[in-house]
């Protein structure tokens, strides 16, 4: 690892002004579970001069509920979120997603802000510089996408044009189904962005000198079923290959409201609006679940090695519709 400055900041304002001072040559560090491996493998052409340590910001690890819903400080640990009684009671899709992240050690270190802002896991992008030189591509500034003609088994099957890497965050998928927003602070002040709009084709919405400060989750409809199902190869520690989160309001067997989000299919978790429409107003049974599953993949355009993901999406959509709210 190359050397860098490590600057601890006591306030959000201090963090923003320090980031500004470094003029794009500094990065934020929270739990460090992602950023340190990015630096260790020197995958990015520009090595940061400094890491701005935000773990020293006091009071940014809260989980509280008010009349507008749930508020989570960006420094709340994934393990704390997974164990929190309010999250488990009313925002279960998020608790379930947090429980599936990696392993206990990473959930104990990793923060929700870092989980949302973590870098992509595309294996060409992550290729270590010390093993014969980093692989450049559009997401790193320039170069062709190696995944298009290469081994793209874990890449996007929907809506990708320039970069086929998928969003690696489990919590993001649940937060999209829960229609959550993130609060971002920078030199120009504060702004709020839907989690579904936070991800961009080549990264995320954070500017160099901005900090993600809070996640806001509106209260879901009372007694709505909530689910998060993830398909991964090595269950106790792996990133999802495909995941589906759902918030479904069913009364007398009929679906009145539904919000279904797909993970592992695109650069952002995608709302499966066609599947939601296919289920709305219908009795939830095998027939409805099958037509929603088909609708969820109508826009799929798999690459050469990942058409198997289409079948997994269909299976998981069907499963979230037919399952009861499981623990
Ligand atoms: C072996 C392994 C398995 C994993 N499996 C999964 C998995 O199954 N599912 C999953 O979702 N994730 C998985 N992860 C990723 C892991 O969840 C993330 O590394 C972790 O959540 C990042 O949080 P952190 O606080 O450590 O972030 P850091 O490593 O400190 O930061 C990550 C990135 O976010 C930025 N950042 C962090 N906080 C903020 C903030 N508040 N404002 C602005 N920018 C910020 C940093 O600059 C950096 O770019 C895995 C990681 C490993 C190493
Ligand atoms: S999928 Fe994206 S990150 Fe991966 S090589 Fe292609 S452009 Fe780069």
Overview of the structural elements:
This protein has helices at residues 12-21, 35-40, 78-83, 85-90, 92-100, 104-109, 112-117, 146-149, 170-177, 195-198, 273-279, 286-296, 308-322; strands at 5-8, 26-29, 50-53, 63-66, 69-73, 181-186, 189-194, 199-200, 203-204, 211-217, 225-231, 242-251, 254-263, 270-271. With 327 residues, the protein is of the alpha+beta class. Helix 11 (273-279) runs antiparallel to helix 12 (286-296) and helix 12 runs antiparallel to helix 13. It is globular. The protein has a domain at 225-322: 2-Layer Sandwich (Enolase-like, domain 1). The protein has 13 helices and 14 strands. It binds flavin-adenine dinucleotide and iron/sulfur cluster.
Give the low-confidence spans: none
Q: Please, what is the average pLDDT?
A: 96
Summed up, the helix count is: 13
Q: CATH homologous superfamily name of the domain at 225-322?
A: CO dehydrogenase flavoprotein, C-terminal domain
Please give the largest β-sheet: 5 strands, antiparallel
Reported by name, the CATH topology of the domain at 225-322 is Enolase-like, domain 1
Helicity level, as a percent range? Answer: 25-40%
Q: What is the β-strand count?
A: 14
Question: Which ions, cofactors or small ligands are bound in this entry?
Answer: flavin-adenine dinucleotide, iron/sulfur cluster
CATH level-1 class of the domain at 225-322: Alpha Beta
Spatial arrangement of strands, main beta sheet:
4-5-10-6-7
Measured distance between first and last alpha carbons: 41 Å
What string, H for helix and E for strand, traces the elements in order? EHEHEEEHHHHHHHEEHEEEEEEEHHH
């Amino acid at each position: 690892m190359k050397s860098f400055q490590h600057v601890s900041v006591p306030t959000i304002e201090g963090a923003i002004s320090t980031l500004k001072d470094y003029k794009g040559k500094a990065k934020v560090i929270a739990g460090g579970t992602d950023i340190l491996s990015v630096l260790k493998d020197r995958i990015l052409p520009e090595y940061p001069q400094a890491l701005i340590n935000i773990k020293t910001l006091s009071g940014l690890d809260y989980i509280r509920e008010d009349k507008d819903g749930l508020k989570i400080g960006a420094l709340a640990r994934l393990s704390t979120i997974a164990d929190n009684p309010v999250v488990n009671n009313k925002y279960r899709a998020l608790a379930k997603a947090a429980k599936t992240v990696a392993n206990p050690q990473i959930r104990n270190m990793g923060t929700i802000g870092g989980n949302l802002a973590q870098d992509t896991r595309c294996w060409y992008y992550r290729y270590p510089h010390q093993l014969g030189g980093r692989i450049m591509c559009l997401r790193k500034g320039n170069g062709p996408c190696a995944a298009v003609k290469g081994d793209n088994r874990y890449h996007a099957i929907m809506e990708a044009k320039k970069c086929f890497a998928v969003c690696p965050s489990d919590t993001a998928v649940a937060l999209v189904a829960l229609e959550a927003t993130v609060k971002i602070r920078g030199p120009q002040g504060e702004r709020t962005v839907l989690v579904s709009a936070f991800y961009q084709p080549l990264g995320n919405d954070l500017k160099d000198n901005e900090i993600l400060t809070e996640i806001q989750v509106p209260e879901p409809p009372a007694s709505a079923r909530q689910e998060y199902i993830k398909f991964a190869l090595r269950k106790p520690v792996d990133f999802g290959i495909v995941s589906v989160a759902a918030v479904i309001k069913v009364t007398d067997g009929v679906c009145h409201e539904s919000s279904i989000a797909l993970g592992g299919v695109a650069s952002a978790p995608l709302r499966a609006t066609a599947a939601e429409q296919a289920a709305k107003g219908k009795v939830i049974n095998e027939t409805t679940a099958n037509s929603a599953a088909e609708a969820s993949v109508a826009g799929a355009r798999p690459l050469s090695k990942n058409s198997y993901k289409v079948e997994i999406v269909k299976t998981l959509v069907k499963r979230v519709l037919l399952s009861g709210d499981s623990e």
